[in-house]
Amino acid sequence: MKKFELLTILLAAYFLVCLQISFHSIGFWIHGYIQFPALAIIYSSTRKLSEISWIYCVIVGLWVDSLSMNPLGLSILTLIACNALSMKTRKALIGKPWLSNFSSGFITGSLYPCLTVILLLLFGESPVTGWRFILSVGLSGLVIGLLSHPFKNLMDFIIAQLEFKPAAHYRESEMREIERR
Asked: Which positions ≥6 away from 31 have C-beta within 8 Å?
C-alpha cells in the first residue's frame, strides 16, 4: 500500500467535505445537499483499499459532523452503511467500470441523506422532509453517480503523476559503450 495514495485520498476527502459544507447554491433551492464526501468513499472502495475505506468512513464522518449541525457519529454510521452497500454493488458489476461506478455512486449518493434522516428521527430530531427532500435525494444520487467515474479517473491521474517512478533499467553493456570517432 502506497502511503502517498492514502494521503491523496484523505486530502481529496477533506476537500470534498469542505466543498459540501460551502456548496449552498443547489442546497438553497432543493433544501438539501449533494453528498460530495461519498465520492472519496466510493473511490477508496474501488481501489485495493477495502480495509482502509472503513477508516475513511470514520474520518470523513467526523469531519462532516464537526462542520455541520448533525450529532457526532451520525455521518459515520451512514457512511459505513453506504460503504458496505457500495462494495457489494461493485462486486456484482465488476466487468463494467462506468456502470459499476454510476450504480455505486447513485446508491451511495441517494442512501446517505435517507439514512441521515432516519437516524435523526431516531435521535429525536425533526429533519426537514417532504417532496423537496425526495428531489434532493434523487438529485444527489444522480450527481454523485455521474461524478463518480470522472472523479475516479482524476484521482488515478493525480496519483500516477505524483508518485515515484523508478528509472528505466539498462544493461551494463549499453551504459559502458563509448562511441569513438
From this structure: 128, 132, 133, 136
Which of 40-49, 62-71, 139-148, 167-176 is the most confident on average?
139-148
Cell of 112: 446517505
Cβ pair 136, 113 in contact under 8 A: yes
- How many Å apart are CA 157 and CA 117, to the nearest integer? 35
The total number of residues shown for the chain amounts to: 181
Task: Show Cβ contacts of residue 137 under 8 Å, excluding neighbours closer than 6 positions.
Answer: 32, 110, 113, 114
| Spatial CB neighbours of 80, under 8 Å, sequence gap ≥ 6 | 54, 57, 58, 61
pTM of the predicted model, to two decimals?
0.75
